[in-house]
Amino acid sequence: MTVPIPISLHVNGERVDAHVLPRVSLADFLRENLHLTGTHLGCEHGVCGACTVRVNNEIVRACLMLAVQTNGALVETIEGLSDSGEFADLQAAFRDRNALQCGYCTPGMLMSAQDLLKQHAEPSREQIREHLSGNYCRCTGYQAIVDAVEIIARLRKERRQ
Ligand code: FES
Ligand code: FES
Asked: Which secondary structure element, helix H or strand E, spans residue 76, and what is its range?
């Protein structure tokens, strides 16, 4: 018989103590145990990027990581980043540029875009496409998403000057 394992982590700045079965994915843990349903599930095998979250400042596929692997980790989801305002400008640009339609890909897309912008102050359109190539969108055709990320890269650079 498999028994639940105790884990302790921080999710969006708050300490979480839980008991989880070893087979439970981080995505299911966030969605079902913590009710953080902004982390979406599409393919559930690491292809679509809908489940992208940050663990210890690195973006990961939450469907491919086990909840027990996050013991002691800092986990950030779309809810946390939205509440903190960390990428409010990016969210506004997605809205203004029509870079989302059904919105299913959007949380993962924003997590990946923010990850790119933290690494590259001025990414080329090619770099933006490359970095977001692991995030599938069935609605937009990607052009508007690349536009939104490019605009925010430029605005953030201007703000730093
Ligand atoms: S649901 Fe995790 S990559 Fe598709
Ligand atoms: S906006 Fe619908 S999947 Fe991207």
From this structure: strand 74-76
| Residue-wise burial string across 35-73, b where 16 or more C-beta atoms lie within 10 A, e elsewhere | ebebbbbbebeeebbbbbbbbeeebbbbbebbbbbbeeb
SS3 (DSSP) at 14 = strand
How far is the centre of ligand 2, averaged over its atoms, from the C-alpha of 129 (Å)?
16
Residue nearest to atom 2 of ligand 2 (CA): 102
List the structure tokens of 30: 């966030």
Query: Which of 125, 118, 108 lies closest to 160 in space, CA to CA?
Result: 118
Residues near ligand 2 (Cβ within 6 A):
100-106, 137-140
- Closest residue CA from atom 3 of ligand 1: 46
pLDDT digits (tens, 9 = 90+) for 26-77: 999 999 999 999 999 999 999 999 999 999 999 999 999 999 999 999 999 9
Q: What is the pLDDT of residues 94-113, one digit of tens each?
A: 999 999 999 999 999 999 99
